[in-house]
Amino acid sequence: MSRISSESSDFLHVFNNIKLMDQISEQHRHL
Prior knowledge:
Blueprint (H helix, E strand, L loop, with lengths): L1 H29 L1
């Protein structure tokens, strides 16, 4: 059970990083 929650948290971490990178690239595009 803990292994599954750990994998899902890792996935969320990567997903949030991708969203953050998208936001940064969007900001750079608007500059």
